[in-house]
Design a protein that fits this description.
33% helix; 2 domains; 15% strand; Phosphorylase Kinase, domain 1; 11 helices; alpha+beta; 3-stranded antiparallel sheet; 5-stranded antiparallel sheet
Length: 405
């Protein structure tokens, strides 16, 4: 009798144990399913493959599968597996790391994003910048460029137009600029006040304007660097919404200097790729004025942009044309297919630190006025039978095309 009782108790104990394990496994499985579901829901990326005419607003994003979560890393070897577009609440709570630089009108601040990657916050620091909407215009272009070109463009992480003091008053009352500027200064690091844009953090080709010998610096560009530079000119000219000029035609542009560019950091196929980061001196054809708007074809804008890049690279006859074998024409827009990348992404890139050191050591004579601030004109073929005094972007009769450095 005792033996039967022990056997029954043993069977009961085993049954309870197995039942408990089964329940635990079910709960664990459900937790795993919920975790994967949450992962899929938050794993949002700007698509690098979207067609250029399919985007009609700033929130066009594509949810990608977990297979996009490869071991791509950024500075400090942080994985990029949860990248998404930030909202105002997240931007307001960004962790400030350090100030990267202050210009006359804007400030650049390094911040840490919610998923660990570091980025740059750009904000206006005075009344003039705020009223002109400079940060807002720059962020809009970066957003639209990423929508068209994906990871080939500078990455855009979001923006927030939070409340701040008005830049205009009703009637004849004028804004107290001194008070406005003080308000901006008091809230430079408060991202819940005023406009904030968040973009990719990179390594500036030149961190300051102390060294302006762009011709010397250009000697250190590699073939891959020059191809990056050509592609910037092509992307702006081929922008699907409206061609983008890298210079106010008929005038000088800061974009001939390497200080306006950065290289991507963090490994992967984008490591070392050159990007244009300061968009203050880019213009759309519409902004240039009604007299020259009819000249704004892709090819003509590309020639203007390539002229800017010829000064940057110090290659007078730089050719940025769309390669016939790697481009196609669809309607009025050309689609350029970028060359495939080599497997070792760090090989064949400029060593900007060495270039800066060498050019500083040489201490070459300063440029004359024409070399220091050359004017960028429309191609002569676009100005046939046009009065150069009326069409200010056309070269004057005495202007000589640049043929040598």
């Amino acid at each position: 009798m005792l033996t039967r009782t022990k056997s029954a108790l043993l069977i009961f104990f085993v049954a309870v144990t197995l039942t408990g394990q089964a329940v635990w496994q079910i709960r664990t499985s459900n937790q795993m399913i919920r975790a994967i579901k949450e992962k899929l829901e938050i794993n949002i990326y700007i698509s690098a493959d979207v067609e250029q005419h399919n985007h009609k607003n700033a929130t066009d994003i594509i949810v990608q599968s977990l297979k996009r979560n490869k071991a791509t890393t950024t500075n400090n070897s942080v994985a990029k597996h949860d990248r998404h577009i930030l909202g105002c609440k997240e931007i307001a709570e960004l962790e400030v790391v350090r100030v990267l630089g202050k210009g006359e009108q804007k400030i650049a601040i390094e911040v840490k994003l919610p998923w660990g990657e570091h980025a740059v916050v750009k904000r206006c620091k005075n009344y003039m910048c705020t009223k002109a909407n400079k940060s807002r215009k720059e962020a809009k272009l970066l957003r639209e460029l990423q929508q068209q070109y994906g990871d080939d463009a500078t990455r855009y992480f979001g923006e927030c137009d939070a409340p701040t003091l008005p830049t205009e008053k009703e009637g004849d009352d004028k804004v107290d600029r001194s008070a406005f500027n003080q308000h901006v200064r008091d809230n430079l690091y408060n991202f819940s006040v005023g406009y904030t844009a968040v973009v990719e953090l990179g390594k500036p080709l030149l961190p300051s304007w102390k060294m302006r010998d762009r011709k010397c610096f250009a000697e250190f560009f590699t073939e891959r660097d020059i191809e990056d530079i050509r592609n910037i000119a092509r992307r702006y000219a081929n922008f699907s919404k409206r061609p983008i000029l890298m210079a106010p035609v008929g005038h000088y542009s800061d974009n001939i200097f390497p200080q306006q560019y950065m290289t991507s950091i963090g490994g992967g196929e984008r490591e070392g790729r050159i990007h244009h980061i300061d968009l203050d001196m880019v213009h759309t054809c519409k902004e240039e004025g009604e007299h020259i708007e009819k000249n704004c074809t892709v090819d003509e804008v590309l020639e203007v942009n390539c002229k800017v890049m010829s000064f940057l690279t110090n290659i007078p006859n730089l050719d940025c044309s769309f390669n016939q074998s790697s481009s196609s024409v669809s309607g009025k827009t050309k689609t350029h297919v970028l060359p495939s990348q080599v497997s070792n992404y760090n090989i064949g890139r400029i060593n900007a630190t060495h270039a800066l050191s060498e050019c500083t050591r040489r201490n070459n004579p300063k440029y004359d006025k024409e070399e220091r601030a050359p004017k960028i004109y429309w191609p002569a073929s676009s100005c046939v039978d046009l009065d150069w005094q009326l069409y200010r972007g056309c070269p004057p009769p005495w202007h000589k095309q640049r043929t040598s450095s």
